[in-house]
């Protein structure tokens, strides 16, 4: 079988942190557990969903992890999704690192790191989707999660395109830097697929724990995954 065509990148390291648990994560988990179709996220849109109290604690633990990094292990460029839960995660992380005497790089926001857009299904729990949009639920299962595009929304393949554009731009403008991305599970999966190279098999929707750390290191031209979904820093929570 032909090897994938590697993604050439001038960055020294890419680290991706998923945001801490959000209030919507709590609602979705409860809806799936109980099957209650009436469970609903109270926020008017995905962009303003905040962290839960546990999510804040997870972000603080991620900040302590960041504060314990030394020398070349410390990120030099930080780019964050503009969604509230990702911005909050970074703010809490930066504050926790600051208490350890570390002054992190100032974060930039980039809308290409936003979460996957779900269109008419935005913030709809799986039980609610099966009850109120059964045709879409059936199509989602038939097509598969990576390629399913909800009406007005994005497939994971669509997310990959915008994240690839982002990585290409950062690679051109920040050669040799250590990039830290604070974003969403869809973005972390997209980064994994992009850095695996053209022709790499689609991994499916692998679980990305909240506040987990994934890392890719350069071998001089290509990026190699060295850690994925690590949560050792959350063991005390």
Characterise this structure.
The longest helix is centred in the last third of the chain and has 18 residues, at 156-173. The model has no long low-confidence stretch (mean pLDDT 95). The chain contains seven helices and six strands, in the order βααβαβαααβαββ. A hairpin with a 4-residue loop joins strand 5 (213-218) and strand 6 (223-230). Helix 4 packs across helix 5. It is 38% helix and 14% strand. The radius of gyration is 18 Å and the shape is globular. The chain has a six-stranded mixed β-sheet with strand order 3-2-4-1-5-6. With 237 residues, it is an alpha/beta fold. The N and C termini lie far apart (44 Å).
Oligomer: single chain
Major beta-sheet overview: 6 strands, mixed
Query: What string, H for helix and E for strand, traces the elements in order?
Result: EHHEHEHHHEHEE
| Beta-strand proportion | 5-15%
Low-confidence runs: none
- Backbone shape: globular
Strand arrangement across the biggest beta sheet: 3-2-4-1-5-6
Distance between the termini: 44 Å
Count of individual helical segments = 7
The count of strands amounts to 6
Question: What's the average pLDDT?
Answer: 95
Rg to the nearest angstrom?
18 Å
Secondary-structure content class: alpha/beta
Helical amount = 25-40%
């Amino acid at each position: 079988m032909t090897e994938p065509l590697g993604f050439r990148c001038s960055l020294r390291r890419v680290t991706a942190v998923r945001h801490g648990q959000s209030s919507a994560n709590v609602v979705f988990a409860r809806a799936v557990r109980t099957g209650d179709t009436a469970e609903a996220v109270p926020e008017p849109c995905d962009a303003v969903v905040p962290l839960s109290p546990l999510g804040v604690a997870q972000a603080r633990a991620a900040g302590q992890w960041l504060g314990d990094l030394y020398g070349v292990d410390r990120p030099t460029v930080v780019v964050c999704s503009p969604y509230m839960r990702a911005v909050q995660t970074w703010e809490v992380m930066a504050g926790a690192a600051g208490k350890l005497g570390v002054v992190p790089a100032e974060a930039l926001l980039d809308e290409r790191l936003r979460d996957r857009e779900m269109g008419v299904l935005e913030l709809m729990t799986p039980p609610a989707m099966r009850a109120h949009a059964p045709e879409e639920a059936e199509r989602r299962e038939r097509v598969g999660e990576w390629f399913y595009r909800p009406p007005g929304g994005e497939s994971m393949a669509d997310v990959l395109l915008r994240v690839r554009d982002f990585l290409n731009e950062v690679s051109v403008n920040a050669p040799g830097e250590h990039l830290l991305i604070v974003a969403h599970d869809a973005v972390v999966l997209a980064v994994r697929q992009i850095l695996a190279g053209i022709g790499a098999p689609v991994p499916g929707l692998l679980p990305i724990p909240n506040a987990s750390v994934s890392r890719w290191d350069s071998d001089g031209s290509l990026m190699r995954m060295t850690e994925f979904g690590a949560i050792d820093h959350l063991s005390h929570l």
